[in-house]
Amino acid sequence: MTLDKCTRGQKLKITSIPDDVVRAQAIRFGIAEGTIITCEEVVPAGPVVLGMFKQQIAIGRQLAKSIAVQPINL
């Protein structure tokens, strides 16, 4: 599953960021493989808003499509 397919309130673990350019962009946001995030909001035709480390980050849809995630139950 990719990050753009998440639903609001879902807890996710980043499993793979295959593209080096995308990985560099994600690292700037503090996102790396193994990071646990919460999907705060999915704006239709817009960004995916993530919650992590007591902050919210809006990730563009194209970037979100390149990040593989796995739903988790905490």
TrEMBL record:
Entry GO MF terms: transition metal ion binding
Signal peptide feature range: none
Pfam families documented for this protein: FeoA
Domain of life: Bacteria
Keyword Iron: yes
UniProt KW Iron keyword: yes
Limits of the Ferrous iron transporter FeoA-like domain: 1-71
Name listed for the protein in its UniProt record: Fe2+ transport system protein FeoA
Taxonomic placement: Bacteria, Bacillati, Bacillota, Clostridia, Eubacteriales
